[in-house]
Amino acid sequence: MNKALIVDDSEPNRRLPALILGQLGWATTEVADGGSALDVARLDHFDCILLDLHLPDLRGDEVCRRLRESGAQPDTWIVAYTGESPDHIAQITQGSPFDAVLTKPITRKSLLQALPPSER
Fold it and tell me: Phi and psi for 105 in degrees, rounded to 5?
């Protein structure tokens, strides 16, 4: 079974992808901040992490960088999950080790397109 970590400080923005992924047979874990994401990622392996760019404690690109540098999730597909404009997304994610970008509000189709290619 595939596992996803959904990181967003907004509960509705966690619930929708959790619902869609659950319908696809994924197990999901939800957290509301970057520190919790780092803690959970140290304890469990995830196939995909949806990572909001604006969290209450750390920016999403910083969390992504720390995850990659720690080696805790070396083969995990990390998706920048945001409601920002395309220009701002490009500015924030430039040089960051994200694998994909998922723009809010999401649809089932857009979420599927953001998943690892082997899972689409």
Answer: -75, 145
